Every structure is written in C-alpha cells, then in structure tokens.
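Mods, move this if it's the wrong board.
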Amino acid sequence: MRKILHVDMDAFYASVEQRDDPSLRGRPVVVAWRGARSVVCAASYEARVYGVRSAMPAVRAERLCPDAVFVPPDFVRYKAVSRQVREIFLRHTDLVEPLSLDEAYLDVTEPKIASPSATATAQAIRAQIRDETALTASAGVAPNKFLAKIASDWNKPDGLFVIRPSQIEAFLTPLPVAKIHGVGKVMEKKLADLGIATVGDLRRFPAEELQLRFGSFGRRLHLRARGIDERPVEPDQPVQSISAEDTFEHDLLLYEFEADIRRLAEKTWLATRKTQRIGRTVVLKLKTAQFRILTRSFTPESPPASLEELTAIALSLRSRVDLPAVTRYRLVGVGVSGFRESGDMESQGSLFEDDRSTAVAPVRTL
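Not the wrong board. Structure tokens:
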C-alpha cells in the first residue's frame, strides 16, 4: 500500500509578499495588478474573510474588500521560493509530482530519510519549510492521491490531516460529491437530479448506470466513492502543452487583435524551443466579454516548423469561430499541444477540434 502526501503551501503568493514586507502582515493582501481587466492571482487569509478568491476580477475583489492592499505579482520570486520547497521534498523522496508552484504529491512509501511513519515525514517536511522559508504549508497523508488531496485542505492553514486505510469509508461517506475532483457545478446538478448529494449516496448508486450515463468519468466516480485511486506519483511528467495568453485593456472584435495573436505566438514559439519534445497542434483560445471560453485548434500533417507557420495557423483559426461578428472578446491565447518525443512523430491527418478549455503545461518548478 502506498503512502502519499499532498503538500500545499498556504496562500503562497500572498504569504511570500507578507513575509518579505512586514507592513503587510495581518492585512488583507491581494496579489494582482489593479485595473478593470486584471484578475486575482492570490489572496491572503485576511482577504479571504471578505470573500476574495483567486481568479475573480480584481475590481470585484476591491469592492468586496475596499481596504485590501494590492500587490503586483512577482513570479520570479515565487519560483525561487518554490525551488527551495522542492529541494526540501527531494531530501525525503525522489517521487515528487509538482502540480503548480505551490503544491505537489510525494510518495513516501520508501523515504530516503528513515522515518517511523508517513505522518512523521509530513511533519518533518512542514517543519523544514517553516524553518527555511518562514512560510507555512498544509499536508494531507493518505493511501492515494485522491484522498491526500482532500486531506491537505482539511486543516488549512498550517495544518496536517491523516486518512488511514481503516478510516476511508467513514471519512468519505458524508462528504458532498463536489469534493471529488472533476465534479463541478454542472456535474453536481446532474448527480443531484439522480438523488446523489454525498459520496455515500454515490457509493450506493449502481456502477453500470454511472458508466452508462457518464462514460469513463462515471467509472471514475464509482472508484473515487470507494476511495480507490491507483494513479502513481509521477515525478517526470512530460510537457503536454505550452501557451501564452493576455487580457485586453478594452473588449475587442475578433479581427481587431491580430497584433496580439502575433505577439503571443512568438512568446509561445520561443517557449517551445526550450523543450526537446515537438508539439503538433496549434490552439487559439478566446474569452468573450461575457466570460464564455472557447478554443479552436488545428493539427497539420507536419508540426509547425517556424514562428511564421505557427502564427499563420493561429491567425487562420479565427475563421473557425462561429459567434456573431459583433461579439467582443476580453482575452486571447495562443498555444501548442500534442507534444511527443522527436523520434516518435508520425504523420497524421488534419484535425479540427472545438473545445471549452485548453490544457495547461505542467508547472515543474516546485
């Protein structure tokens, strides 16, 4: 049986700002650029009391918390701290799977440093993070990734929660189904229509009917309701996609931001040059003024071989957008996905895909 940790830094960006500027300590801090087009990158716990959350528009955060201190993000500094934290992780295990700059899974089934238990290892890691970075982290300890992720959020901030194998069923049974990763508002409503509100309800629902209604996700729901997750911790996940996006100062019509597409295509192209893998699919991401997200993508017979080719494909994807010509957009992004090793490339036919979201490359700094 595996022993898995999920370690999550507490309000990471905001906590780094409060650590480095004593005048911010104890105050509601919002990490974001000011302006009508900006969104919140992070919020301190003092700001969260007012309902401020990451990804919400900065203007809304300012309305919710007029006394908030807005601090522009400094990702160079956050990445440096993230590297410090990852070095601490690697003292204990080589099996570290970063999810972002501020969280990761660790498999400590066979730790590098002798330890009486996974719980003791988690305590040691949290203590070292506190001593060496002056920041706090919360951790979950469990037999798999699904449960460890839930556990790390249980006693936040600066907390530790353990789910032992004998406790799994009792722990999961009363939880709302929204605690299962992938169950958003839409899926939660669909499950509620079936009389499923808790994980216990889900466990009692026939597996065959779940799979019939929701396909492979229904099968995954059946397993998660029983606390089953066989995914290993994967420390060397290859890059799946690379992208760059930007929010306009003012909403624009579809053919008014060609210069932005060209600029973002160049940024994405330069980023792809830093990996040994080759991406095949070009993706154009758009967000309307009403916050509807849509993507259009194209996979040519051969991977884009130059910036000019990548840019031409990204620009041409605008013709695949079938919204009214008067539609205005607040954001555009250009990405490359479908990465493979250079020796594994095989010719495939062209493929158009309409999606509602764009995959993001794994952040591998932590």
